[in-house]
Give the backbone structure.
Amino acid sequence: MGAHFAVDLAEGISIEKFRADYRGRLLAADARGGVNLFEAPDYTAAGPICWLMGAEGPGLSVKALELADERYWIPISRSVESLNVGAAAAVCLFDAARRRLTLRH
């Protein structure tokens, strides 16, 4: 509870404006393709990152995918079409935290 007070959230801003203002890398979580999140090299080592998440059905917009620096997918069972955005965000944020904590020590 209260974790949202410890992170920066951006709402009501276009992806173009966000891309122009954000100085880190934008990582797209995309069930349609990209690099396997669990097999990827350490994407946290090169500085700040921001995960882009889309709705469960449509996913991220074409523009958001174009502006993302990197694209990742979460390996799931073939019988499952996708994860809801909350579950996908939890997996991506946990993986980033795990990499920062374990790969640097």
Observations:
- Helices lie at 15-21, 62-67, 85-102.
- The first strand starts at residue 25 and ends at 29.
